[in-house]
Amino acid sequence: MKTTSFAHQLAARAALPRLSVGMTESVNIGFLGPLSGQAESWGLPGLNGCRIWEDGLNKAGGLLIGGRRYPIRIHSYDCGHDPERSLEGAVELVQKHNVKLMLMLGGDTFAAVRDFLMRNKVLTSTLLPTDLSPDTPYLIAPSEAHPIQNVTGVAWLAENRPELKTVALCSQADLLGLPAQAVYRAAFKAADKQILREVQYDPETSDPGPVVDPMLESGADILCWCSSYAPMVHAMTEYAYAKGFTGQIISCTMDGYDQLVEKTSAEFMEGVVFQFPDFDDPMLREKAFFFNRPHVFFEEYNRRFPGSWSAVSWEYVAILDIWHSAVEKAGSVEPPSVLAAMKQLGHVTHAFGHADWWGEDIFGISNALVGDWPVVTIQDGKARIAGFRSIPAWLAQHSNLLKAEMEALGQLWHQRLESGAPGSRVGSRAVQG
């Protein structure tokens, strides 16, 4: 794989003659994700970022394949977090637009379209590697290793706050939340932290009280929101503040953290740990990685889509960058050729540096990229990268523990396939660790 980013390639190509610019036939990409509802902040901001990428590539002449350039067109379909709508969208995007790449959040919405997309050999991306199985040869997770990357936040917290000994965690009972609960279980156990309370709740709930109260009553030093959706993260954080909690909070995401600082206090939010940086972070200016000049993208994004930056604003774009490089290397947009180009060297440079294809032990197929991942903390009201941690290094020590916790919650690939892969619909309830 080429290691130069799309932005760098654009600059280099500006000095070169364009070949067959302005072709009317477009290469179509599908965006099938939540553009509304509970998971909107993990869909719509990602589509916004893709529009920036789409415009930039087309202004540079389009996608170069065999000496000819083709414009890119991204077709979106709002499936919310509804499996039925997801299937309707997949059929429309494939049959009407003949998309060559399908961008998805994943989870319950992917489970509904898995057979259709794989049968039609549609190269599909997910942000959730737990969607992977041997039955998904055309599914890739090249951007986010959710929820595996969350082990890095727990490991960092254990190193830097060793006095914190106990934790209470919660998760929505769906195909995004349950794997995250398993990963956080494994990460806290690997860090020798005692889990005092676990709560699973219905993903449609908006009442934080029944979820947070038992966590607070446990007296835990750490409250972990796992991979709860943004509206619930806000509700639970505000609730914990109102109840006088003064301990540590850790969460996969903290979208709109500036609003929480305003609604609670800078002191309360100080030191909150999560996994997704703002791209104006000083540590990203110094790090050489695939997504070139992240601060420029961050500035452009906020200029065009103010107030909407989230954990996924850049993630689908990072997938497009990797796909773009593979297409031009293969000289084709056909999934088998593109996938082979991605896999040829055994590793790819992803958003935060070198990454390897991984996953066979847990998912039955090595179609997920894992490498370093940033740990983010809130410092003086602003998200800042506290450091980078290696996901492969953690897995080398604790993969058996992770596999055991995934199995305990029915999240190994064969368990999900046997169960039909729906997330449970439950009320808030405590579960045994």
TrEMBL record:
Signal peptide residues on this chain, from the entry's feature table: none
Entry keywords, A to Z: Amino-acid transport, Signal, Transport
Superkingdom assignment: Bacteria
Keyword Signal: yes
Keyword Signal in record: yes
Membrane-traversing stretches: none
InterPro entries named in the record: BCAA_transport, Leu-bd, Peripla_BP_I
All copies of domain Leucine-binding protein, residue ranges: 27-371
The family this protein is said to belong to: Belongs to the leucine-binding protein family.
PANTHER family: LEUCINE-SPECIFIC-BINDING PROTEIN (PTHR30483), PERIPLASMIC BINDING PROTEIN OF ABC TRANSPORTER FOR NATURAL AMINO ACIDS (PTHR30483:SF6)
UniProt name for this protein: ABC transporter substrate-binding protein
Organism taxonomic ancestry: Bacteria, Pseudomonadati, Pseudomonadota, Alphaproteobacteria, Rhodobacterales
